[in-house]
Amino acid sequence: MTTELSTREWHARAAALRYATGHFIDGAHVDSLAKGRFTAVNPATLQPLCEVSAGGAADIDRAVASGRRAFASGVWRRMAPRDRLGVLSRFAGLIQANAERFALLDTLTMGKPIRDMLSIDVPSAVQTFSYFAELSDKIDGAVTATAADAFHYILREPLGVVGCIVPWNYPLLMAAWKVAPALAAGNSVVLKPAEQSPLSALLMAELFVEAGGPPGVFNVVNGLGETVGAALALHNDVNKIAFTGSTEVGKLMLVYAGQSNMKRVALECGGKSPQIFLADLEDLDRAVNYAINGIFGNMGEVCNAGSRLLIDKPIAEAFIARFVELGKTAYRAGDPLDPTTNLGPLVTAGHRARVVSYIERGKRDGARVEFGGDTPALPGSYVNPTLFSRVNNQMTIAREEIFGPVAAAIEVSGITEALQVANDSIYGLAASVWTRDLRTAHTAVRDLEAGVIWVNCFDHGDMTQPFGGYKQSGQGRDKCLESLLSYTQTKSAWIHLG
């Protein structure tokens, strides 16, 4: 990875960057049939970056038809699994080789600091494709025990055409989490990236073909969610929708599946993740630093952001004081192409206004601003990291997903009340508990209503970890073997030998 460049050098490389702005269908970059365009904006400057093809239902039709032709031909699904592994491994290598391009594309479109792209997003995307590449030849069937006059076996087969709809907060990585297992299982893919951050998906699809992937297997259609996303989810020749985004839109995916062909739907939606800090935690500073990074990392634009800090009353005063002391200076808003910047802008001016409105609501509801609560004097869509204390779990800032750098500190009395408050939410994506008592830790893991639980850490994990939620955080799982198998279906063959 290129990490030693100066801000000036990064700006020069950004200015020289060339990128596709159409769709990628059947192995080629193409324009929209209706010739529509939309503007991608750089959130660090609020200036137009480029004009991108705005797709419609007709573009989804031709992308799905391309995927269906490729699937029916067997060129990918019937390729020897070790050969498919080879293509995906080369694909991972090409993403690594183009790390700088991917980093610049996502930084310019959604404001993520270049340092985070190079140290987190790109390496994680490479790891994702490498992991699922290695699983390509490890999809097992089964032979069951039957009566002597029968032979019964179970096959696992790819679904067909998978529609992937991904958000703007991790454009490259979220696409990798969906596309990699779908391809490894032998499916064709139509990817709809977020309209705020469409460019890295196009480069990804182009590199798949360069790695030896057959044309038509991996297609990308850009456009607005209410048109292109809806058309993909409603398409009768799409066998599954894999969606990451808001809970509101996730519910629409279920409706669209029912209105069309009853396609499978995997959802990873919103969150309001609690971090429980009990009085017996071992290291206050370590816990506070995790709390700071758990809500301010990636500008708080993280579905599993640890936005609710449930702090045991005996340590609440000390915890909040230390959070203020360390948190006020932990994240510096600035130019995302500056390698020292760790807090970029929010994705759009509209989203900044939304986050600011939540901050104002918190003030009106009686929560106390310990620091932040405002915007820096920068031209882009920035919001300063903010900590609220004196929050109760009925306040709007404690119940609704803000998707910005806003933490809500809620005081609780012991693990019983902490679990009650943690579970009093429509969401259940992730949670953490900090304690040195083994019984308490296991009790919390058992009773927390969330799909991912961390003990004495936050946001740790590897590719073996299923990532997904309970309740209105969705029901899909990303990463892990379970994710790969969710892109397959079983076929039972019963052979009568009598």
Sum this structure up briefly.
This protein folds into 2 domains: 281 residues, 3-Layer(aba) Sandwich (Aldehyde Dehydrogenase, Chain A, domain 1), CATH 3.40.605.10; 189 residues, Aldehyde Dehydrogenase, Chain A, domain 2.
Write the layout of secondary structure elements.
Layout: H1 7-16, E1 23-25, E2 28-30, E3 37-42, E4 47-53, H2 57-73, H3 81-97, H4 99-110, H5 114-135, E5 142-143, E6 150-158, E7 161-165, H6 171-184, E8 188-192, H7 199-210, E9 218-220, H8 225-234, E10 240-244, H9 247-259, E11 264-268, E12 274-277, H10 284-296, E13 308-312, H11 313-330, H12 349-364, E14 368-371, E15 386-389, H13 396-399, E16 406-412, H14 414-423, E17 427-428, E18 430-434, H15 438-447, E19 452-455, E20 470-471, H16 480-485, E21 488-496
Parallel strand pairs: 7-8, 7-10, 8-9, 10-11, 12-13, 12-18, 13-16, 15-16, 18-19
Antiparallel strand pairs: 1-2, 3-4, 5-6, 6-21, 14-15, 17-20
Helix pairs in contact: 2-8, 3-5, 3-7, 4-5, 5-6, 10-11
